[in-house]
């Protein structure tokens, strides 16, 4: 896999190589919801849950070898929980991973995981800093029910707490969300095809968010999603995670 990627890139090495996620490969991406409801979330998995710790360990060992051979400068992981990292640590000879790339934003702040990574010396790279695109209008209508005649938010960017803070600091909602990530010492990778938005996303170094502003933003979002979860009979953590909305293992609650 790495050799093919290097050949396609016409490079001798890459700076960073990540293990994409701690779960199984799938036998098909055309996974039917009714079949998974009938047979469980592992119905289409190519590996058993019991196999995963060993598979991750073997994959990491191959990545360590590639690093020793000079084909990669650093190795890391993506979407790993504390439990996954602790299990990997037991067999790793290269530790810590340079990076753990995870979904992280004020609605899904992952505080315990951030604290763990800081303690272990793992850089956290946040994806979906602006909230991603997987949560639709029906989701946001549940979390922030609109007043009669008003429209519900369509993205994290235009939720009332984010817009209120953006107005307070005279910045755009996107800049507020990116600044929140920087205040948490996260590496961020926002993407856009618009030159205007690229420039906007880069203008986040001329202001700061106070601890009080960060706490208010997180609390208001948490209160809204917690109430929606109670009303819908859903798990709060599952509702707050905006990415992989249709993936049966999206909560990463497996060994």
What does this 3D model show about the protein?
The chain has 255 residues and is α/β, with parallel strands linked by helices. It contains 11 helices and 5 strands; from the N terminus they run αβααβαβαβαααβααα. The chain has a 5-stranded parallel β-sheet with strand order 1-2-3-4-5. Helix 7 (160-169) crosses helix 8 (173-183).
Fill in the keyword field for this structure.
alpha/beta, 5-stranded parallel beta sheet, single chain, 5 strands, 255 residues
For the sheet with most strands, the description reads: 5 strands, parallel
Question: How many distinct helices?
Answer: 11
Principal-axes shape call = globular
Give the strand tally: 5
Query: How many whole angstroms does the radius of gyration measure?
Result: 20 Å
Low-confidence segments, ≥5 residues, pLDDT <50? none
Fraction of residues in H or I helices? 40-55%
What percentage of the residues does DSSP assign to strands (E)? 5-15%
């Amino acid at each position: 896999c790495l050799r093919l990627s290097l050949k396609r890139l016409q490079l001798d090495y890459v700076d960073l190589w990540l293990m994409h996620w701690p779960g199984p490969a799938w036998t098909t991406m055309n996974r039917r919801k009714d079949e998974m409801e009938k047979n469980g979330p592992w119905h289409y998995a190519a590996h058993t849950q019991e196999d995963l710790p060993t598979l991750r360990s073997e994959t990491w060992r191959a990545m360590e070898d590639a690093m020793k051979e000079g084909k990669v400068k650093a190795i890391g992981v993506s979407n790993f929980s504390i439990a996954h990292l602790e299990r990997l640590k037991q067999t790793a000879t290269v530790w810590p991973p340079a990076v753990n790339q995870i979904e992280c934003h004020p609605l899904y702040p992952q505080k315990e995981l951030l604290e763990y990574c800081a303690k272990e010396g793992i850089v956290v790279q946040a994806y979906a800093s602006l909230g991603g695109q997987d949560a639709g209008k029906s989701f946001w209508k549940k979390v922030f029910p609109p007043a009669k005649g008003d429209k519900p938010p369509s993205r994290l960017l235009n939720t009332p707490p984010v817009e209120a803070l953006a107005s307070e600091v005279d910045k755009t909602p996107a800049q507020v969300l990116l600044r929140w990530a920087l205040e948490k010492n996260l590496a961020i990778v926002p993407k856009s095809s618009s030159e205007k938005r690229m420039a906007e996303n880069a203008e986040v170094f001329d202001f700061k968010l106070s601890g009080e502003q960060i706490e208010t933003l997180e609390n208001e979002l948490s209160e809204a999603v917690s109430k929606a979860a109670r009303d819908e009979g859903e798990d709060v953590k599952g509702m707050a995670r905006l990415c992989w909305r249709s993936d049966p293992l999206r909560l990463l609650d497996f060994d």
